[in-house]
Specification:
alpha/beta, 17 helices
């Protein structure tokens, strides 16, 4: 019974308006973490139709058996009707620029001779038709895996286009054969009717011979030797999709590093103030809120920077991270540690132990809205709305650029936003402490300790 009474007393310590919610929020932590993460990633591949991509058609139509073959236009129409991605038609320069800036997640280019290559499939020198797929891992690593779906779709569409052209050629030649056979049959009947008249039989034989020659020319000549082998190989696999990557991450671990580094630095800020005090009460009582703020922030911030550097060193030496811009990566990690610690200090100062729960909830929200795994376009509207206001978003984007390469403007924005968050948090903490010079009953109560 004593155990139960002591347990009850532990719950009674939570008496303030916010403090009373602490046990209930703790009980909801598994729900919040599990449900938010599952909600945001429930069906990302089913929402790829929101992911903007571009197709560039540089193809020129050709004439085959008196008919126009426009394979590029057919392919553009087919992929846009498929609805698997948010397809945009574009010119080459615009598509490349938007791929670099992250407005498009990949681009597909149909080359100038695409239709001509399709039309050559039954010729003596067949050529394989190709399209080019270009990615940029600086916009996200896993989207490259989703692009495999686009590659398969393109190959299916290309194969269908190639088969259509081949059938047109075959049926076009078949029509010539049918017309020739009909004419030859008419001539044969006419010749049979004139068989008793030698004078008429001679011209009839000449006419039949001429039609048979035309019929023979309508029959395609079968290729021989190496040409036959090449045509058989091409008919078995008539199309190809080549690919390139502006800033490849190469390995899954390199692609996921920005996401996991961001989690590690945020968690440090949360844990740091479970051990260290967010501010010095004596400095507050002496009327020096700025001093109290900086004195409470600096020790944890320095440890956060040290922890970030150790994390980078271990990953570099142990896993060969080999970032494109290692010094910028180090600078961004240090800035993120300083900023995240400042945010943790603010919530801990403002709300006490309840602030730790707020930081935990913010971690869950950022995990699901920062676009660290899948493009944010594949998440529900709630997480897409959070994406541009969460600090972890900018750390993930910036780290991608420092590791795989990318737009300098993206990296500059990451530095600027993280610095602004850190400065705003320090200023807000100073304002909170400035109002704490006066004693109150809430300050006389002991703080909740976990």
């Amino acid at each position: 019974m004593r155990v139960l009474r002591l347990a009850q007393l532990e719950f009674r310590r939570f008496r303030g308006p916010l403090s009373r919610l602490v046990p209930w929020v703790l009980a909801l932590v598994p729900l919040l973490y599990g449900s938010l993460y599952l909600w945001s990633n429930w069906d990302p591949y089913g929402l790829l139709h929101r992911v903007p991509v571009a197709i560039v058609n540089e193809d020129k139509p050709v004439e085959v058996q008196g008919r126009t073959v426009d394979g590029g236009a057919r392919l553009v129409r087919a992929v846009r009707e498929s609805g698997n991605f948010d397809w945009h038609t574009s010119d080459a320069a615009t598509a490349h620029d938007k791929l670099r800036t992250g407005d498009y997640f990949f681009t597909v280019t149909v080359p100038r001779g695409f239709s001509a290559d399709l039309a050559s499939s039954l010729s003596r020198k067949p050529r394989r038709a190709t399209v080019h797929l270009e990615l940029n891992d600086a916009n996200g690593f896993i989207i490259g895996k989703a692009a495999d779906q686009a590659r398969l779709e393109l190959q299916n569409q290309l194969a269908a286009a190639a088969q259509e052209v081949e059938l047109r050629q075959v049926f076009g030649q078949g029509k010539e054969l049918k017309d020739g056979l009909d004419k030859s049959a008419d001539s044969a009947k006419e010749l049979a009717g004139q068989s008793g008249n030698p004078a008429a039989t001679g011209p009839g034989l000449q006419k039949l011979s001429l039609q048979l020659a035309q019929l023979s020319s309508a029959v395609p000549q079968a290729p021989e030797g190496q040409a036959a082998k090449e045509q058989a190989r091409l008919l078995a696999s008539p199309v190809d999709v080549t690919s390139a990557n502006l800033h490849p991450a190469h390995l899954y671990g390199r692609g996921m590093t920005p996401f996991f580094f961001s989690i590690a630095l945020w968690v440090f800020g949360l844990v740091g103030y479970l051990v260290l005090r967010p501010y010095n009460p004596r400095a507050v009582d002496e009327g020096r809120p700025a001093t109290a703020t900086l004195a409470g922030w600096l020790p944890t911030a320095l440890l956060g920077v040290l922890g970030g550097l150790v994390l980078y060193a271990v990953v570099q030496l142990g896993l060969d991270l080999d970032a494109e811009s290692p010094w910028l990566l180090v600078a961004l990690v240090c800035l993120a540690a300083l900023s995240f610690v400042a945010l943790a200090q603010f919530f801990r100062t403002l709300l006490g132990s309840t602030g730790d729960l707020i930081l935990l909830v913010l971690l869950m929200l950022q995990l699901t809205s920062c676009g660290g795994l899948y493009p944010v376009e594949t998440t529900p509207a709630f997480f897409r709305a959070l994406h541009p206001v969460m600090p972890m978003t900018y750390l993930v984007d910036g780290l991608r650029v420092t590791i795989s390469g990318g737009q300098g403007s993206t990296l500059g924005l990451s530095f600027g936003v993280l610095a602004a968050y850190g400065a705003a948090a320090l200023l807000a903490t100073g304002l909170v402490l400035a109002r704490r010079r006066r004693w109150s009953m809430s300050r006389l109560k002991p703080e909740i300790q976990f």
